[in-house]
Amino acid sequence: MAKPTYQELEDRVARLEQAISAHQATPEWRDLGAGFHPLHEAMAEYLLVLSREGRLLFANQGGMRFITCGRDAVANGQELTGYLPTAQAEEVLGLCTTALESGKTVKRQILLNPGTGSRWFDCSVVPLIQQDYSGPAVMLLLLDSTAFMMQQTYLQQSEEQYRILFDAMQEGVIYFASTTEVLAMNAAAQRILGYSLQEYRERFANETVWKICHDDGRKCTREDNPVTRCFQTGQKTSGLILKTFQPKTNSDIWVVVNVTPLPNREDTAPKQVIATFNEITDRIALRRSKQARLNLLENTPRWSMQELLQRTIDAVCELTNSPVGFYHFVEEDAGVLTRRVWSAQAKEKFCQVETKGAITL
């Protein structure tokens, strides 16, 4: 026999209440009476009927076992306070009073412990307004939701642990809800990129954030970048090196990026995309320094001393982002400064003095 739902039971109770109020022995009333016993015994819920004063008027087998802690005892006619802790019994009676005064079903999650351990219940309190000698009563439907509550607690704890890990990571993490919307950004990502979450959202939406280049100098655009491609194809990207501008340090930085889709079960397109990245500016600087040194060593045999000095100072200025560079020789004993070479940028923008020649100090 299929177990009835809350709504089916409440509908039957409403019809039962109408029949009682009208004092009519209708066929509907007789049908309900004949089917009531198998109905309430097949229920997954505990069913209790209480008077306004809190006396137990009726309970199905499950409800009776619950209220008496599984003992073969009959609790009909007894006060609810004799079976539950005082605070819990008062909470239930308060719900009963609210239901009777409003004439509406009251639903609440409550914690009950008749002596076998605390359990969480989804509680529905249905008013049964009778006009005979028995007086007003309420029907309690109690569905054990302890397992669900424990699962929710576990999920909340997992969410808290995830949030702690998310914020404590040294690796930057950004969640993208679409190609134009940033969902979340951890503290490391904000530190590395130099933007708060709100600032990055605004810049991402209006494209001012796209001051990003590939390692070979090609610029990223909204249409051509790893996040957009991931949303379009569902394919991840690993180990991509990008250069971007860091506004707080007013300098370029390099990051190595991994882009991963979060699949959508109902569609092939990902519902979200995650970008994780680490700053590798120091590593890139070291790589460029080694490349510059190797280039100088390889070409030393075919360059003149003047050309070697020029190439060396230009490479140093490029590696250090310095606008001015020069090689001048100082003869301290003679008090003479011999000018040899200025960097190309210094000669173009700052210095118009003849390179060669000696100046007496």
Give the class from helix and strand content and strand pairing: alpha+beta
N to C succession of SSEs: HHEEHHEEEHEEHHEHEEEHHEEHE
Distance between the termini: 109 Å
Number of helices: 11
Radius of gyration: 39 Å
Please provide the count of β strands. Answer: 14
Taking the sheet with the most strands, its summary is:
6 strands, antiparallel
Low confidence ranges: 19-34
Average of the residue pLDDT scores: 76
The residue fraction in helices comes out at: 40-55%
Q: How large a portion of the residues is in β-strands, by DSSP E?
A: 25-35%
Query: Reading side by side through the largest sheet, how are the strands ordered?
Result: 7-6-11-10-9-8
Shape: rod-shaped
Write the layout of secondary structure elements.
Blueprint: H1 6-22, H2 27-42, E1 46-51, E2 56-59, H3 61-67, H4 86-102, E3 106-112, E4 119-128, E5 137-144, H5 146-168, E6 172-178, E7 181-185, H6 187-193, H7 197-205, E8 212-214, H8 226-233, E9 237-246, E10 251-264, E11 267-279, H9 281-299, H10 305-320, E12 326-331, E13 336-342, H11 344-349, E14 357-360
Antiparallel strand pairs: 1-2, 1-5, 3-4, 4-5, 6-7, 6-11, 8-9, 9-10, 10-11, 12-13, 13-14
Helix pairs in contact: 9-10
Give an overview of the whole structure:
40% of the residues lie in helices and 29% in strands. With 361 residues, it is an alpha+beta fold. Helix 9 (281-299) runs antiparallel to helix 10 (305-320). The chain is rod-shaped, with a radius of gyration of 39 Å.
